[in-house]
Structures are given as structure tokens and as C-alpha cells.
Amino acid sequence: MKKIFFYLWILLIMSVCSYNLTIHYIPNIVYTVFHYKIEKNQNIKDNEIKHFDIPSDQSRNVVMPNPDFLYSTIFYDLSEKDLNINANMPDSTYWSVSFYKPNTINWFVKNDQEFETNNLDLTLTFNDSKSQGVIKSPVKKGFMIIRILVEKKDQNSIDYYKSLQKSITIN
Amino acid sequence: MKNKVIIPILILLSIIIGGYTAISKINSSTQNNEFSIKNGNWTVNPNMDLKNSYQRAYISRIGVFALDEKEALYFLSSKDNDGDPLTSDFDYQIIGTPPKGRYWSYTLYGEDYFLVKNVANIYTINKENLNIDKPIIVSSSKKDINWLPSGTETKFHIILRVYNPYESVYKNLESLDLPIIKKIEK
Predict the structure, then answer these.
(1) Which residue, B179, B169, B154, is CA-closest to B69?
(2) What is the CATH number that goes with domain A50-170?
(3) Chain pair A-B, CB pairs under 8 angstroms
(4) Where residue B6 falls among pLDDT bands split at 50, 70, 90?
């Protein structure tokens, strides 16, 4: 009888630990599943950019996509090299660059009004650096999103913003 | 020998019990918007750089890769002005002005938080495509102007996004005068 209570006590303690670990790692699990889905469905590897079309009801990668945005994304890996991000961005609409940790925390965001120019020229590094245009990532592996707002949905506007989206390059 | 059987069973059971309870807790928090600031029938999460594990898990469940409050605010409503769940069985009018910011939009999502299929491929009413002389109507049947289609969703959510909100907006989230979603005759 004593032994049964002992085992129940152990079960309770381990269940509480499992509960807390699950809560803590849910964001990482969400991120890992998203990473896997993008890698598998879009055939995209780390440090490769993926330009997404304007979200529709067919978009199932992430909940609550904004149908006013063109998204470009990269799963970055700075283990072996820094990343240079270059682009000609729009001059008359909202756009932003944001970075996330694998626990989905947004550690950096900067929008068009905060950049001095529409010619995006950034370096992402894991090493210490205070140079201008260099962003130090707190993690070796993470996620970047570049958002471009497309307010008008006429084909000319969409084509124009898509051409700018395609100018985003990573090397 | 006995312990060799009991210990793995205990470990497996604890993983199942703990994991299931945690996921149920986050799912129920998602349904009840437990970790959000409430203003009328809208809820909003101002700070995405979350230190609290529960809040972080909750945000990753409903709005992964969201931005912080200076960049964007996400007001979510799943109920009308009377507190009833939003459903495509009824039509609604959105009355009022969005909080001040650089850009705003209303977007309709299904119960699963994905965009809702509709014949017109309209998913959003925003600052640019709004006709300010006409009301915004949420309906499953086609409207000529300011139409936010609700498809065939038994339950749906409306997100009001405000990009680069004024400081007076993100510092007064609980007391903002937000638009209401009113049930109207179909």
C-alpha cells in the first residue's frame, strides 16, 4: 500500500514537470512544426529566402496571416557565416524587417520610417559588432520576416510590389 | 525487475498527463482570451516580448510571429455587441472609428484562425479600400460596398490591426473607445 502512494506521488511530481516543460516549449514546438512544413512544402532550406504571395484562404502555414501583406521569410543559420540582406524597398508604403527567436519572441523590428533609405543593406551576425547596418542576433538560428504592405489590390499595384519583393536577396 | 516495468510506465503516464493538461490549458485560454487585455468585446496583447511562459505559449497558438505594440496592435473580437458569438447566420455592422495609427484593417478569420473562403476573395476592409460614406457590413451574402464576407463559418473572429499606433493608443488600451460589432437584420 505504501508503495502505491509512493508511485502516485512520483507520478504527480513528474506530471507537474511534464506540464511545465510542455507550456515552456509550446512556442518552440509551434516554430519547429512551421519550420518543417515550410522546408517540406516549399522546398526551402536555411538561409534561403522564400517570397510568399498575398495570403488567401488557401494559406495554411501560419494562423491569422494578414491579407494586406507580401511576406518574405528566411530561416537563418549564422553558425558558419553572416548574412547580407539587400533589397530595393518601396518608398510609399509600410514595410518592415523583423527577427524572431525559435521560441517565437520578436527580438528586432524596424520599419520604413526608421530606415534612412529604401535601399536595404543589412548584415546579420552572431558575432559582436557595432558597425552601422550590422545587426547582432542573440541566437545562431532564427527567423526573419520582411513585410510589404499592399493596400491597393489592383493588379498593377500587386505586380509593382511583387517586383520589389523579388529584389530582396540574401548572400 | 518490477521497477524496470513500473518506472517506464510512470514516465510515459506523466508525459501524457502533463502534456495533455498543458495543451488543454492553453487551448482553453485561447478560447477565453485569458491572457489578453480586455476592452468591451475586444481583446489585445500589447507586449509580444513575453517573459511569462503561459502568455508566450498562448501567443504562439493564436498569433505566432506577431509584432510589439509600437509596431502593430491586434484587437481580436469573437463576439458581437450583445456578447453573442459571431456567426455567419447573422449579418453585422461595424460601427465606430479604429484607433489612430498609420494604417488599420479589419480582417475576418474562421474558427480555426485562417482566412475564410468566399466567392469574391475579399478578406479585409482597410484604410485604403473603405468607402467612408457607407457602413462596414459583415455578411455571408454579397454586398456592393464595404463588404467583409463571413462565408459559411458557424463561428468566426474579426481582427482589427493598427500599424504604428499613436502612443496615446497603445498606452491606453483598456480605455480606448473601440468600434462595436452590431447584429443587424439579414
Answers:
(1) B169
(2) 2.60.40.1610
(3) 156
(4) confident
